[in-house]
Amino acid sequence: MTDIAAETISPHEAGCAPTASFLFTSPHRSIRAFGVNEKIRLSASGAAHADSFLQTAVRDAIERASLLGQENPIVVGAIPFDVRQPSNLFVPKRYDVISRDSLVPEERDCFCAPKVVAIRSIPEKEGFKDAVMRAIECFRAGKMSKAVLSRILEIELAERVDATAILNALLKQNPNGYHFQAPLHDGAILLGASPELLIRKDGDSIRSNPLAGSAKRVADPQQDDFTSRKLLESSKDNFEHKLVVEEIHEALRPVCKRLTTPNAPALMNTATMWHLSTMITGELANDDTSALQLACRLHPTPAVCGYPTPESRSLIDNLEPFDRGLFSGIVGWCDAKGDGEWAIAIRCGTVNDRTIRLFAGAGIVEASDPDAEWAETGAKLGTMLRAFGIDAGACASCL
To answer: SUPFAM superfamilies attached here (predicted)?
Structure first.
């Protein structure tokens, strides 16, 4: 079965890989990988355990890379939202640890806004709002507390997309995010600038920075400050945020000898959004526990799925008219020592020739307003639309 087998790439095929097959940047450590030694297309279900199919395959692939002469080999790539689906991981031929400052975005003086041939939202506005109302009915019936509902903006352009130019734009407009470029098995490329760190492991130290509760930024400084304070005081957004933080704390507590979780969230901002943010830090009881194990222990969090997880995932399956794939999955890396970093795949999209698919979601709780949640997804789509040079006016009917 394809979802329980590691695929070995021939030397000839690996040599034909792009110059940079994977890129992940963060304030902590940035990785640029080249070529492919082995692809690992395994389900991440149960992969919080060291003896799982996925973790065993990753260790074996890393060991084979070490025998070929690599020093401290790594596994890189992405894991889908639905961990029952095959992962999109690989061990590269080589990699560099780089300074993010060295990735100076290229100026696009000659850049021309692409011509949009067709655009559609999946689902459309009324369908999304209906899904929000149906989720709220479930909350009122006491079946669950939160569900994250999302949509995809599918855009066809007149010309082929330059993925490198898009990544440069993301680096320039979101310098503090977690940037990623990852090749996918179907030939597409996953690009994004996520604000959300799922997990970082460095020795026995760990860090997680869940975000939940958002508000669109505005141009006027005074109004923007008012928006941020209103978010910080919002009972609806604080309730949504608390669900996420408590779930992550409880998931990490059994593997930590020290775990610190602030009592109240702080504010984080991007170019387009304000977010409620909590920085969770800890010390592992056993530093042999890898970053990939920790990521699989946490994913999917209530920030991208809901609470409780089984019920919210079932509701998402019923209400969303598409398969998320890697959207709201996780992307990152883990080395032979178990150190690594994984971000949540939001503020992202896929590029495949002239077709781009952008993703945005919103956390729905009982106090949610369908129109406001639609507007929130539209605001979140702004990050990628600007990177592609697409005027929001061309997408007005979908935002």
So the answer is: ADC synthase (SSF56322)
Residues sharing a CB contact under 8 Å with residue 86, sequence separation 6 or more, in sequence order = 2, 3, 41, 42, 43, 80
pLDDT number for residue 230: 97
pLDDT reported for residue 7: 39
Q: What are the pLDDT digits (tens) for 290-303?
A: 999 999 999 999 99
What CATH number corresponds to the domain at position 387? 3.60.120.10
- Helical residues (DSSP H) of the chain, grouped into ranges: 11-15, 53-67, 125-140, 163-173, 221-233, 235-252, 291-298, 309-319, 370-387
Phi, psi (deg, nearest 5) at residue 23: -140, 135
Joined tokens for residue 391: 């005027």
Asked if residue 134 lies in contact with residue 143, where contact means CB atoms within 8 angstroms, the answer is no
Q: Are strands 330-335 and 38-42 parallel, antiparallel or unpaired?
A: unpaired
Who has greater pLDDT, 19 or 5?
19
On the 0-12 / 13-18 / 19+ scale of CB atoms within 10 A, 102 is: exposed
Residue-level pLDDT at 355: 95
Count of structural domains, the chain: 1
Residue 142 lies in a domain: yes
**75 found inside a domain:** yes
Q: Which amino acid is at 24?
A: F
Q: Please state the pTM of the whole predicted model.
A: 0.92
CB 385 within 8 A of CB 358: yes
The pLDDT of residue 394: 65
Please compute the mean of the pLDDT values over residues 275-297 and round it to a whole number.
Answer: 97
Residue 334 lies inside a defined structural domain of this protein:
yes
Alpha-carbon dihedral sign for residues 34, 36, 41, 43: negative
Known catalytic residues are: 146, 196
Q: Which domain holds residue 259?
A: 4-99+115-398
Q: Is residue 289 part of a domain?
A: yes
Alpha-carbon distances of 123 from 126, 154, 282, 319, rounded to whole Å: 8, 10, 40, 10
* Angstrom distance (rounded) from CA 128 to CA 30: 37
Structure tokens at 211: 């975000």
Burial of residue 98, with CB atoms counted within 10 A of its CB: 0-12 exposed, 13-18 middle, 19 or more buried: middle
d(CA 393, CA 386): 11
